[in-house]
């Protein structure tokens, strides 16, 4: 069911001025993360509000019931314990924080718990036990399929099975982590043998990350009708990809070193509560497409399982940085490019008895729109490296060059609602070691 | 370098009688695990010795230096902290325990720390941060390749790249965990569409598990010459597989639900120290095979990187159980079926900058020998389900039936050395839920 209450009121005002402005984090957002304030290196849970972060570690004593339980669970260095509590306490915390921020008599109580965001350090919001990357972007799957398998772009299982694979959890990092260009085995088309060296076709992938709240026991499943209850919220995810390493290694068992050198997420969990007003119907499937099997079918999910979230990618090159220029946009798309809903991914993942756990991260796969203005990777934008793109300053790119920084961003909007943002997911490619 | 010292002396004798016998765990083995004694549910590190388990949680006060450090690290509910210390403290602990068990003046001191193994509970030896499954069994790769891709059994990358993929960490369980037959999407050859239901082609896979000790930082690599130092030891691994689910889902991104419903490991970590006397040269590759690339080449590893470990699979069916029969053997092979050494897997895994962590688990992939007496899966034994095998009691199997129990076992042996065992890795298939 759609969850809308006073915390979504677009007219609500806070005594904290920057909570009312046009930042990514107005009063109606209240995303969850882990931070440490300037001069204090102890990570603890926080809620982004305007240009500030509210310290959840210090909030418990001002709350009661489920909200206090949630704040206590969020007081440590990861949100796993909060996620494990499920939707009830998380909603209670949201309502309580909203009430405190809109009640001017509480200002003196809460001010000491608000820290300036800019000098704070942000961390991964949760310890990721397992990371699974799906492949729900059907335009991306078709675009990439054409490059890797011209005769067979979309395999026969694609419209029945939410295709996914296990990714590497240890190399997931929070926004702002720079990393060296990976090395690996590469076999160029004209070489008779592979050689080991730096990746020449380094790429980004624009994805959404789905944070799992409470999970299921091994051998149990998660019915589609309740699957959404198992999602704590969303974040941006950059699934950096070494295309030349991938092309050589990926058969028959899938991508491995091509993807596990780093994956970057944005620091704030945009909760399913915050996103409730931006729910939309799952895009209609073409007439000829098969109906989802029963374990993936739910009328409510079909009506409200997608989100109107706009996603953008910007690049900042070394030359632009030296010239004092702003990042320029590479693409702008929408999360509705998903062929499967987040709930369908959760239900499918657990359908064979695999146990999900609080803090598991699911990637949607690259979300590309139907035309090139919304392609979510350079592989697609440059047509497999054959057609370089030209940036406003005249530079060209087929794939990423050293010192290129990528910035993913996103926001949810709807008429008569406040627009809420996701913050950014940044990372810079450093020269190979 | 080969590490052999007094702890490998085949003539050594303990004051503990069952440490001198022909169990899997004689004095020269000293494998590491996590257990709780009867009537006490607090898991702690232990060393298997004969029919007993030595409580490492209580041992620290009797040790000094590195050995005490290691015992302290092993006193908790997982061995991750011990693994993180690397080989030095682990070896010091081995030497110290060996000394205590062979010095009869220490019997009164140590007896109170010895618990009967049979009524003890065994746990996963470490928290698995990430699990990676490789595909090093070249006979298996050829056998399976023929079934899935008759025209193209061994892909062109196989002899260059140690093929591997990320597996699911949350569903790894210790020996003795029974599990329901998984359900999933299955498309039979004559059906136009897939249907969701219980797996009809449930299989086991005989593998070795490799426990990672200390790891590497993200962006760093592990040179092949020091890769073996990053291995704490080995265990048995059953990579249960739903072949019909796998066949439909695995392209293009690899196995997913077909493998993540459970993977089972044996509880004892047979340390690289214990295995040192059984090191053998990597089997010679055929003349035509390419030489490994430089980052995977090491003369010492080529001379000593393989192990003479014999691996067996037994089955116990419901009918055999009812008749009071013993499990019957399905296959007997050798770990030398690996095309790549354990050190090569570690070096490859980190070669692109992926960070390994203490307690990561690497699977070798199914280790099948050259002929059917040593095939490590029913898929191979039954030639893809086309040729049922007959058990001694007349029952036949193509794939696993409900209430079938699989028992993997292994031992290392060498002339003039004591034979050491791995214990067993058991699991029973229960009816689908």
Automatic annotation (TrEMBL), chains A, B:
InterPro entries in the record:
Fumarylacetoacetase (IPR005959), Fumarylacetoacetase-like_C (IPR011234), Fumarylacetoacetase_C_sf (IPR036663), Fumarylacetoacetase_N (IPR015377), Fumarylacetoacetase_N_sf (IPR036462)
For this protein, the Enzyme Commission number is 3.7.1.2
Enzyme's top EC category: hydrolase
- State a single Gene Ontology molecular function: fumarylacetoacetase activity
CC cofactor: Ca(2+); Mg(2+)
- Family annotation (Pfam families): FAA_hydrolase, FAA_hydrolase_N
Q: What is this protein called?
A: fumarylacetoacetase
* Organism from which the protein derives: Kordiimonas pumila
Gene that encodes it: fahA
